[in-house]
TrEMBL record:
Gene3D superfamilies: FAD/NAD(P)-binding domain
Record Pfam families: FAD_binding_3
Annotated keywords: FAD, Flavoprotein, Oxidoreductase
Domain of life according to the entry: Eukaryota
UniProt organism field: Pisolithus tinctorius Marx 270
A single GO molecular function term of this UniProt record: FAD binding
The protein's name in its UniProt record: FAD-binding domain-containing protein
Cofactor: FAD
Residues in FAD-binding domain copies: 7-209, 334-399
Length: 456
């Protein structure tokens, strides 16, 4: 497909953050942009599965919240247990005074991307595929513009580039922006969860249809199981032609590092082993262990992957393509959103949520900047973007710190607290989580932090 030769804004990446950026620009009355993506088709993996209240409120602003809510499943509580007993029941209803979305919305990322893509298409947005960026340089005739070159030799000249092209962004290194762990909060030496194995699976027990969101804490590991919405089955049938009758569940578990790296696409046997060793006993495939007296086996793996739980953040989310004169604020504006700007552990389901909020809020700021450049010097107009990205980067650092804390709790090493407190850290963690489930203030704080309402 031939690309437009010129545009004011080029959005690189048509995942959830790229599409949300486009929808936000349209909502604020701006339509002079082009969206490109390196993939022939949108991502077919589910990856992130929850949209929190603060993100739904942001998506409401650009007219996408209700459509996503209609496709997803509302989770009204989270249960955290040991393998054999209950630790804490954390209800979302404590959010009712603060939001119209007092719940977490379970919806796979690929489905979220599909819904946002349909919304964008209905508004006239075309995603140009597959077009992979391979270079970017100052335009010879106008130093405020960039010529972005693609693998097939085509070039787009643009004033702004939104890099929504993921953790392996091609735009970020071209712009000379570093991407490193901020080293805030607990480090990897405080957790055993250096790698995770997520998968979407079906089970051979139909009684599990009423299974709720559950996290299971065990010594040195964390396991999660969540039911995905029935609409996801319908989506897969339409997109792939494959009809899956059983409820699809997301399972995710830490994979012990000493046992080697997680395979690229873990097999059913690999995932079943993690469920049997670290999941709740009522999901065990061993009848002698399962309290029901019957084993529950994985029937089919729909999708599986591996995740490293490292963190990184870009030095800045806004820069200008260097023009050779460091004293002048020239060169096209480069802005980073989503995984191109920040990555961290998926524990707590914060990554896509933060990226979507970045994208929605960026649309408004970009339109303000475009208008400001019509009447103000570029250095003065740029303060709009500089202030915005400083705030978004601060939010990202908060989220990275939060996810590191969650990771250290979920993968807490089984060691003695201190010589003067000779009890296991795991025992202390379980006791504190049990207390959190009993005390209203603590329950509210946990859910409030998960919701993102305090760090929009």
């Amino acid at each position: 497909m031939s690309l437009p030769r010129n545009t004011t804004i080029l959005i690189v990446g048509a995942g959830p953050t790229g599409l949300a950026s486009a929808l936000s620009l349209i909502h604020h009355g701006f339509n002079d942009f082009v969206v490109v993506d390196a993939l022939v088709k949108g991502d077919n993996s589910s990856r992130a599965i929850v949209i929190h209240a603060a993100t739904l409120e942001a998506l409401d602003v650009i007219g996408c919240g209700d459509e996503l809510v209609s496709k997803g499943t509302k989770i009204t509580s989270m249960n955290f247990d040991t393998r054999t007993g209950v630790l804490a029941h954390l209800p979302f209803d404590t959010l009712k005074p603060y939001t119209r979305h007092p719940y977490g919305l379970l919806i796979p990322q690929t489905f979220t991307e599909h819904v946002l893509g349909q919304k964008a298409a209905s508004l006239g947005v075309t995603v140009h595929r597959p077009h992979n960026v391979v270079g970017m340089k100052i335009n010879a005739d106008n130093t405020n513009l960039a010529d972005v070159t693609f693998e097939d030799g085509q070039v787009i000249t643009t004033k702004y580039v939104i890099a929504a092209d993921g953790a392996r962004s091609t735009i970020r290194p071209i712009a000379g922006i570093d991407f490193v762990d901020p080293k805030n909060g607990p480090g990897h030496d405080s957790t055993t969860l250096a790698q995770l194995a997520p998968a979407d699976v079906t089970f051979d027990n139909p009684e599990l249809n009423n299974f709720n969101f559950r996290g299971v804490l065990s010594t040195n590991n964390f396991f999660l199981c969540a039911p995905l919405p029935p609409t996801f089955n319908e989506y897969l049938a339409k997109e792939t032609g494959k009809h899956i009758e059983e409820r699809i569940f997301r399972v995710a578990c830490g994979a012990p590092v000493e046992e080697g790296p997680v395979p690229h696409s873990p097999s059913k046997a690999f995932i079943q082993s993690l469920v049997d060793r670290f999941g709740p006993l009522d999901l065990s495939s061993d009848p002698s262990v399962n309290p029901s007296g019957k084993g529950v086996c994985i029937k089919e793996v729909i999708w599986s992957s591996r995740v490293r739980t490292h963190s990184a953040i870009a030095d800045t989310f806004f820069t200008r393509l260097p023009s050779g004169d460091s004293l002048k604020p020239e060169g096209a504006a480069i802005l980073l959103v989503g995984d191109a700007a920040h990555i961290h552990s998926p524990v707590g389901g914060q990554g896509m949520n933060l990226g979507l909020r970045d994208a929605v809020f960026l649309g408004e700021m970009l339109v303000k900047h475009v208008k400001a450049t019509e009447s103000k010097p570029l250095s003065e107009a740029d303060q709009i973007l500089a202030d915005f990205v400083a705030e978004r980067r601060a939010r990202a650092l908060e989220v990275i710190g939060f996810t590191k804390k969650l990771l250290s709790v979920g993968g807490m090493k089984d060691a003695i607290v201190a010589w003067w407190l000779p009890i296991s850290k795991v025992t202390l963690r379980d006791w504190m989580l049990w207390m959190a489930g009993k005390v209203h203030y603590l329950r509210r704080q946990v859910i409030w932090n998960m919701s993102g309402l305090g760090r929009r």
